[in-house]
Amino acid sequence: MSQDKIELTLLPENRQIQVQKYQSILEALINAGILLRADCGGKGKCGKCRIQISDEYRGQVSLPTETENRSLGEKNLRSGLRLACQVSASGNFAIRIPTQTLLAPEVAQKGPTLLPEMRSAKKPAPGTPEAFGIAVDLGTTTIAAYLCDLNHHTVKASVSMRNPQVIYGDDVMSRITAVYQHEDHLSKLQKMAANAIEWGVRSLCRSTDVAPDRLIKMVVVGNSTMIHLFAGEDPTSIGIYPYEPRFKEERSFSASEIGFNFSDTINIITLPLISGFLGSDVLAAVLATDHERWDDGTMLIDVGTNGEVVLLDQGRFSATSCATGPAFEGASIRHGMHAVSGAIDAVRIDTRTGKAICSVIQKDPANPRQPSGICGSGVVSAIAELYKTGLISTDGRLLNNRFPDVFLCDDNELPEYLLVTAEHTRTNRAVTITQTDVRAIQLAKGALYTGIHLLCRETGILKPSKMLIAGAFGSYIDKQDALTIGLFPEMDMVDLNIVGNAAGAGAILTLFDETHRQKALTLAQSIRVIDLARHPDFQDVFMTSLSFPE
Length: 550
Ligand code: FES
Prior knowledge:
The chain is α/β, with parallel strands linked by helices. Helix content is 29%, strand content 23%.
């Protein structure tokens, strides 16, 4: 072992990995393929990368940072709990990783909303050999993968997980910057995406008893930066004017080119890209919503870390994108998590006491889990309720004077609204909505609303006649909550349609029917791209969109 390397032992399995001296443990673990929750990208803010240092090795690791003192408190630090992103070691040491810290792929409760033609299962001819495929929606924050039966046209199982690349930043611009700054970051980010997908595929195969060598094809969609990183292509041109991607065409890869080990033979394709900020994910979402039957004035919004908006007006598709940030996916939210078992997905507030009544996603209702955090739709729901109850002002300040008992105070003396007390959570940490969480949602909804408003204005219409809300976040969102906080323009509830993870559905559709590859290409070439970042009214509209509607 070279002199600048030390040995890290993972307990209880006693697995040894070699790490660089003084390297952050988070980075060392991720390099070794061990994926942790790191929602803030290693900045010490989210408190989710907790690890336990074994007693006898405390002397080998760096002293607690100011951030750890604040996030973990003295008692936790004394018990050996540390933040993996803040601690490094100078000699051999051992750690335990609490289960809540591990990024666990979880079978999603809701698959994508599928078109009728996708729902109607097929009957293959007798003797047809089994054949399976994988559809992947590679998001900046969340990766969703679907194992599909190619003969019967059915989805057998799906998983979703956090994108481990988040340690290089939580939005596409920080990933691009990471690649620009260090030449080895491109291959690291590529490997992370490949490892995470492989990990999801293996877990899908295990849960369905499908042998990985039965997987014959994979369709991957994502925003342009994610697809560049997956393909191992430098995305830096997307970050610089005129924001052009290095490639836009459909690409095809072998397993070894991507670095997959679960199969030698699987054929992998990525769908075409529209522009630097409009990727194959929104293209797949448009395909999955049967765009050939859209009425004029129909708008699709794919809500993720980047909000992508497509509008059909006078027979022509126009599209734009806006940087919503990861708040809608539960990342960058103090107690945020994605929409899996144990996540609070809806909140109601008792107007007499100010107390919250929370609904929690349960994968197995017979074996309910206590809440461990809140997902994006839960945060929107909580904020809408707080606003309706008068506990948030129009400009987004939490108001703790009416019901002081349901508010705590954070380290910066700012109020935080108590959703669930520590003794009723799975993590023994209270779940709250902080002032920073409210600000994150205001910024996200301001960006999205600006995108919708300016796209309508550029195409000469007042507002869309019908909206299709896509994205995992959209699967759980309550339409009324969304309208309450001003996420979308005021419109009849019947004209707001939740279509779930339409990008994933588009990838599945392409797995089942090859003709969608040509449809994707035609669509990518015909969509008019509108760049809002340079729009002269962007700043004004954005600023006025931050408040909650009167
Ligand atoms: S606190 Fe370590 S990644 Fe967020």
